Amino acid sequence: YGADSLLLYEMFMGPLEAVKPWNMNGVEGVYRFLSRVWRLIVDESSETTLPNPTISEQPPSDETLRELHRTMKKVTEDTEGLRFNTAIAAMMELVNHLNKLETKPKAVLEPFVRLLAPYAPHIAEELWKVLGNGPTLAYAPWPTYDPKLVVSDTIEVPVQVNGKLRAKLTLPVGLDAKAIESAALADANVQVHVAGKAVKKVVYVPGKLLNFVVG
C-alpha cells in the first residue's frame, strides 16, 4: 500500500489519545481515498504523468469555494489540535465534492494538495508537480481560509408534524420564527399533514427544528 497509506491509516484510526485496535484491513479504506485523490488530478489514460483533462483554470463556483475554505479551516484547527482523524475526514468530504464536478478548478486543487502534504507527503509532492508547481511542496505556505467564506448563508430546518419529520427546508440565515413557520406551511408535504387540522402549538428551536402540534 505504500508509506502514505500506512501513515494516513495510523492517523485516521481515531483520537490520538485513545486506545485503538490494529487492523491492517483498515488500510484499504485510506488507500482507496488516496487513489481517488490521484485520479482527481492525474490523467490515468496517459502513458506519462499528465494532469487530468478535467482540471480547469476557471475560478470555482461560490459553493465549491465555500467547501474549500470550510475544509481549510477544519484541517488547520484539527491539525493544530492533533485531531488528525477528523482532519482527514474533512479532506475526504472535499474530494467527494470535487469528484461530482465536471471540471475541477486548479485554484481549489492546489490548496487541497497543500493540506494533504503533512498527512501523505509523498503523493502530495507528486501531485504538486503534476499541477505545474516546483521546486518542492515543502516550501509552499500553508493555505489560509477566509472567515467570511466559512459562514454559511443558509440553514437547514427539519420540519415535524406531531413529532414526525415531514420536510427539510433550506432557508436564508437570519429569518425570524414567523417567516420560517410561513415557509414550512407553504411546503407541499407539510400541507398534506396539517390540512383540515387545527395547529394547536408551534415549537421552534432556532437552527434545530420546527414542530407543528396539530389535532
Descriptive account of the structure:
It is elongated, with a radius of gyration of 22 Å. β3 and β4 form a beta hairpin. The longest helix has 19 residues, at 62-80. α2 packs across α4 (84-99), α3 packs parallel to α5 (106-116) and α5 (106-116) runs antiparallel to α6. It is of the alpha/beta class. The model has no long low-confidence stretch (mean pLDDT 93). It has helices spanning 3-12, 27-41, 62-80, 84-99, 106-116, 121-130, 177-185, 188-194; strands spanning 55-56, 104-105, 154-161, 164-172, 199-205, 209-214. The strands form two sheets. The protein has a four-stranded mixed beta sheet with strand order 4-3-6-5, covered by helices on one side. Strands 1-2 form a two-stranded parallel sheet.
Overall helicity: 40-55%
The proportion of residues in beta strands is: 15-25%
Q: Please tally the helical runs, counting DSSP H or I stretches of 4 or more residues.
A: 8
Total count of strands? 6
Average pLDDT for all residues: 93
* First and last CA, distance: 60 Å
The parts where pLDDT drops under 50 for at least 5 residues are: none
What would you report as the Rg, rounded to the nearest angstrom? 22 Å
Overall outline: elongated
Largest sheet: 4 strands, mixed
Order of adjacent strands in the largest pleated sheet: 4-3-6-5
Summing up helix and strand content along with how strands pair, one would put the structural category as alpha/beta
N-to-C series of helices and strands: HHEHHEHHEEHHEE
